[in-house]
Amino acid sequence: VALSANGPVTLWARDTGWGRDNPRLPGVSLPGGIAVTDELSAATQADMLVLALPAQALGGFLADHARLLDGKHLVSTAKGIDLTRLTGPSALLADACPQATVAVLTGPSFAADIARGLPTALTLACADADAGRALQHALSTPVLRLYRTTDVAGAELGGALKNVIAIAAGVVIGAGLGDSARAAIITRGFAEMTRLAARLGARPETLSGLSGLGDLTLTCTSAQSRNFRYGQALGARQPFDTATTVEGAATARAVAALAARMACDMPIAAMVARLAEGTMTVDDAAQHLMTRPLKEE
Ligand SMILES: NC(=O)C1=CN([C@@H]2O[C@H](COP(=O)(O)OP(=O)(O)OC[C@H]3O[C@@H](n4cnc5c(N)ncnc54)[C@H](OP(=O)(O)O)[C@@H]3O)[C@@H](O)[C@H]2O)C=CC1
Ligand SMILES: O=C(CO)COP(=O)(O)O
């Protein structure tokens, strides 16, 4: 919807039965500049493709369709770590499409806000600086302001890890543990995010930017966030709609595996993984986090 301000857009979906009003984005009717198709080959005529799939669906999608995508400029919006490969979306894309230029578009941005034309700032990450600059210009609009970086690992890890911490923040609020505890989770969660990202080659300043701290702040404080709402439901011991995409649940399990492999201390992510698996109660998770050995900040 936002990019149609810059020129014609082709939107591919596997099921287009919804016409111009997708129930995943209630209240938004697609503008006339958007052609909707369920023929992927019609959308892949373009040189620049934005892939807006959930992180756990991207690998399967690429296994089926990489042939049509290779050689293109591929921009992923997915915020997660693939559970089977333990990598972010950029590595999945680069492996499946070795001739493609791979980029990541991430940062604090609810789809509903962008579709309403509300001002939003994002990070466009591409290891190829010239390609990144071109994509930054192609994807910015008067209300969508993109900052660029070549630190792809930092940008995609910030987006993936903040979802895990947002679940923890939701648990705190859902369980009635208070705003002070939420601030502690956000701050210590950010320490965890920065620690793991540094071990995986990210630059600390990227984690402090829109894709890390910016998105962490948004997602931990807004009930618009599905990750936050899922955590709230866990904390309040209420059911949650399993059809809703909650990236942080699978990513917490991927992070737990990565952290174990790298001997990296990620206590909040570990608790979220166990809560999501149902192998720990909220009370036990809170007690575990509060009674760890005392340490320097
Ligand atoms: N929503 C948001 O505000 C934001 C989301 N993101 C990130 O973008 C990614 C996508 O999120 P979002 O769009 O909200 O997710 P949704 O679950 O709302 O939509 C996912 C879309 O991907 C399609 N899809 C899922 N699996 C497949 C598959 N195997 N093959 C083809 N299409 C598939 C779905 O099709 P169908 O409808 O047919 O199921 C749907 O169109 C996530 O990683 C999310 O974290 C980033 C910023 C903001
Ligand atoms: O990533 C998002 C906002 O930047 C969307 O968050 P949720 O997936 O938690 O709704």
Automatic annotation (TrEMBL):
<dbReference type="GO" id="GO:0005829">
    <property type="term" value="C:cytosol"/>
</dbReference>
<dbReference type="InterPro" id="IPR008927">
    <property type="entry name" value="6-PGluconate_DH-like_C_sf"/>
</dbReference>
<dbReference type="GO" id="GO:0046168">
    <property type="term" value="P:glycerol-3-phosphate catabolic process"/>
</dbReference>
<feature type="binding site">
    <location>
        <position position="227"/>
    </location>
    <ligand>
        <name>sn-glycerol 3-phosphate</name>
    </ligand>
</feature>
<feature type="binding site">
    <location>
        <position position="79"/>
    </location>
    <ligand>
        <name>sn-glycerol 3-phosphate</name>
    </ligand>
</feature>
<comment type="pathway">
    <text>Membrane lipid metabolism; glycerophospholipid metabolism.</text>
</comment>
<dbReference type="GO" id="GO:0006650">
    <property type="term" value="P:glycerophospholipid metabolic process"/>
</dbReference>
<feature type="domain" description="Glycerol-3-phosphate dehydrogenase NAD-dependent C-terminal">
    <location>
        <begin position="151"/>
        <end position="286"/>
    </location>
</feature>
<keyword id="KW-0547">Nucleotide-binding</keyword>
<keyword id="KW-0443">Lipid metabolism</keyword>
<dbReference type="Pfam" id="PF01210">
    <property type="entry name" value="NAD_Gly3P_dh_N"/>
</dbReference>
<feature type="binding site">
    <location>
        <position position="111"/>
    </location>
    <ligand>
        <name>NAD(+)</name>
    </ligand>
</feature>
<feature type="binding site">
    <location>
        <position position="162"/>
    </location>
    <ligand>
        <name>sn-glycerol 3-phosphate</name>
    </ligand>
</feature>
<protein>
    <recommendedName>
        <fullName>Glycerol-3-phosphate dehydrogenase [NAD(P)+]</fullName>
        <ecNumber>1.1.1.94</ecNumber>
    </recommendedName>
</protein>
<feature type="binding site">
    <location>
        <position position="14"/>
    </location>
    <ligand>
        <name>NADPH</name>
    </ligand>
</feature>
<dbReference type="InterPro" id="IPR011128">
    <property type="entry name" value="G3P_DH_NAD-dep_N"/>
</dbReference>
<keyword id="KW-0444">Lipid biosynthesis</keyword>
<dbReference type="GO" id="GO:0005975">
    <property type="term" value="P:carbohydrate metabolic process"/>
</dbReference>
<feature type="binding site">
    <location>
        <position position="246"/>
    </location>
    <ligand>
        <name>NADPH</name>
    </ligand>
</feature>
<dbReference type="GO" id="GO:0047952">
    <property type="term" value="F:glycerol-3-phosphate dehydrogenase [NAD(P)+] activity"/>
</dbReference>
<keyword id="KW-0732">Signal</keyword>
<feature type="binding site">
    <location>
        <position position="215"/>
    </location>
    <ligand>
        <name>sn-glycerol 3-phosphate</name>
    </ligand>
</feature>
<feature type="binding site">
    <location>
        <position position="109"/>
    </location>
    <ligand>
        <name>sn-glycerol 3-phosphate</name>
    </ligand>
</feature>
<keyword id="KW-1208">Phospholipid metabolism</keyword>
<comment type="function">
    <text>Catalyzes the reduction of the glycolytic intermediate dihydroxyacetone phosphate (DHAP) to sn-glycerol 3-phosphate (G3P), the key precursor for phospholipid synthesis.</text>
</comment>
<dbReference type="GO" id="GO:0008654">
    <property type="term" value="P:phospholipid biosynthetic process"/>
</dbReference>
<feature type="binding site">
    <location>
        <position position="226"/>
    </location>
    <ligand>
        <name>NAD(+)</name>
    </ligand>
</feature>
<feature type="binding site">
    <location>
        <begin position="226"/>
        <end position="227"/>
    </location>
    <ligand>
        <name>substrate</name>
    </ligand>
</feature>
<feature type="binding site">
    <location>
        <position position="226"/>
    </location>
    <ligand>
        <name>sn-glycerol 3-phosphate</name>
    </ligand>
</feature>
<keyword id="KW-0520">NAD</keyword>
<dbReference type="InterPro" id="IPR006109">
    <property type="entry name" value="G3P_DH_NAD-dep_C"/>
</dbReference>
<keyword id="KW-0594">Phospholipid biosynthesis</keyword>
<feature type="binding site">
    <location>
        <position position="226"/>
    </location>
    <ligand>
        <name>NADPH</name>
    </ligand>
</feature>
<feature type="binding site">
    <location>
        <position position="79"/>
    </location>
    <ligand>
        <name>NADPH</name>
    </ligand>
</feature>
<keyword id="KW-0560">Oxidoreductase</keyword>
<dbReference type="GO" id="GO:0046167">
    <property type="term" value="P:glycerol-3-phosphate biosynthetic process"/>
</dbReference>
<dbReference type="Pfam" id="PF07479">
    <property type="entry name" value="NAD_Gly3P_dh_C"/>
</dbReference>
<keyword id="KW-0521">NADP</keyword>
<feature type="binding site">
    <location>
        <position position="79"/>
    </location>
    <ligand>
        <name>substrate</name>
    </ligand>
</feature>
<feature type="binding site">
    <location>
        <position position="247"/>
    </location>
    <ligand>
        <name>NADPH</name>
    </ligand>
</feature>
<keyword id="KW-0963">Cytoplasm</keyword>
<feature type="domain" description="Glycerol-3-phosphate dehydrogenase NAD-dependent N-terminal">
    <location>
        <begin position="1"/>
        <end position="130"/>
    </location>
</feature>
